[in-house]
Amino acid sequence: MTKDRLADLQAGILVLRSNPNNALQVVRQMSEHRTMHIKPSRWSWNRFKDFMHFYIMLGAIPAALVITYVNLFIGPARLAEIPEGYVPEAHEYFPHPITRWMAKHINKSYQQEYELMCHHIYEVEYEQKLRKAEHRIKQKMAEKQDTQAYYYQPVTSRNERSIRVNTETDIEMSGTN
Amino acid sequence: MEDPPSANGKTNSYAEFMQAVYRTVDRPVTWFREKVVVSNRPDHVYYHQKFRRVPTIDECYTDDLVCRFEAQQQFNRDKLVDSEIVQLVRQRYKECLISEQPDHTRKCAKLMADFQQVSENFCMKYSDLGPLNNVKDAYMKQKHRMLWERRHGKVGTGMKDQDAL
């Protein structure tokens, strides 16, 4: 420490000292010597700067560059009549190039979703009809009381077979007592 | 932007000056667009999708849900197309009104009649059905309308006999 600085310190004058953790901080050299400097937290501010950098450098700027390039140098398509005997693909029904790309690589086409829905309705309708038929049959059986349906238990042996296989494997591995 | 060429060859120096100012901004921008931007774009096209007609709701069996779904989708598409048609007719009528003021009652009468007819037909088919497009409701509306017309005559002429229902 230089002489004049030492004199300043001894006089108790406010000294600006650079903090190794962060920016400048006012320290009054009076009696204490702190290793941990008590100051307001800069955690929120640092996090804010991190978020700003992240969303702007990795989000806004690349998106702006890509969108500018696409709009300038690829540009929207022009409307044309469908040629004879040609079936356009789903992505050729959109004008903007980014929408076209998304329709080609990401989104399901209208026809695909339509046919998936048709199939789903077909399956569900089939099950509905089976349930309704079963309900009607049970009702008739209850009305007329002329079948021996109460003797019939619908049974599958899937579980029993699996238990038997497991038991045999257990006996093989660990033996009987 | 530019005025049409004058008939008697006289020019307005103020107008010429303003157009020259406009050109200082417009010329570079137009040059850039035509030489740099448009020339480097690939020429690609897009089409308007054409859909096949499928059986409508009155041709479907009552327990055929797939047919009903397809009829519903066709109804939705037809509703979009019909709304656009009404919009076009309305736009033509409005443009006539604006450009023919104050003679619009005389000059736009045909367009007004067309618009009335088109919007009446649209409302006959699609209106008063609630917020959800339901093709079965529209079908029933048509059926009820035909019954009513059979009993009372055309819609708008009043009910013949309250008790005859």
UniProtKB/TrEMBL annotation, chain A:
<keyword id="KW-0249">Electron transport</keyword>
<comment type="subunit">
    <text>Complex I is composed of 45 different subunits.</text>
</comment>
<dbReference type="InterPro" id="IPR019173">
    <property type="entry name" value="NADH_UbQ_OxRdtase_B5_su"/>
</dbReference>
<protein>
    <recommendedName>
        <fullName>NADH dehydrogenase [ubiquinone] 1 beta subcomplex subunit 5, mitochondrial</fullName>
    </recommendedName>
</protein>
<keyword id="KW-0813">Transport</keyword>
<dbReference type="Pfam" id="PF09781">
    <property type="entry name" value="NDUF_B5"/>
</dbReference>
<feature type="transmembrane region" description="Helical">
    <location>
        <begin position="52"/>
        <end position="74"/>
    </location>
</feature>
<comment type="similarity">
    <text>Belongs to the complex I NDUFB5 subunit family.</text>
</comment>
<keyword id="KW-0679">Respiratory chain</keyword>
<dbReference type="GO" id="GO:0005743">
    <property type="term" value="C:mitochondrial inner membrane"/>
</dbReference>
<keyword id="KW-0496">Mitochondrion</keyword>
<keyword id="KW-0812">Transmembrane</keyword>
<keyword id="KW-0472">Membrane</keyword>
<keyword id="KW-0999">Mitochondrion inner membrane</keyword>
<comment type="function">
    <text>Accessory subunit of the mitochondrial membrane respiratory chain NADH dehydrogenase (Complex I), that is believed not to be involved in catalysis. Complex I functions in the transfer of electrons from NADH to the respiratory chain. The immediate electron acceptor for the enzyme is believed to be ubiquinone.</text>
</comment>
<keyword id="KW-0809">Transit peptide</keyword>
<keyword id="KW-1133">Transmembrane helix</keyword>
Automatic annotation (TrEMBL), chain B:
<keyword id="KW-0496">Mitochondrion</keyword>
<keyword id="KW-0472">Membrane</keyword>
<keyword id="KW-0813">Transport</keyword>
<dbReference type="InterPro" id="IPR039993">
    <property type="entry name" value="NDUFB10"/>
</dbReference>
<keyword id="KW-0249">Electron transport</keyword>
<keyword id="KW-0999">Mitochondrion inner membrane</keyword>
<protein>
    <recommendedName>
        <fullName>NADH dehydrogenase [ubiquinone] 1 beta subcomplex subunit 10</fullName>
    </recommendedName>
</protein>
<dbReference type="GO" id="GO:0045271">
    <property type="term" value="C:respiratory chain complex I"/>
</dbReference>
<keyword id="KW-0679">Respiratory chain</keyword>
<comment type="similarity">
    <text>Belongs to the complex I NDUFB10 subunit family.</text>
</comment>
<dbReference type="Pfam" id="PF10249">
    <property type="entry name" value="NDUFB10"/>
</dbReference>
<dbReference type="InterPro" id="IPR019377">
    <property type="entry name" value="NADH_UbQ_OxRdtase_su10"/>
</dbReference>
<dbReference type="GO" id="GO:0005743">
    <property type="term" value="C:mitochondrial inner membrane"/>
</dbReference>
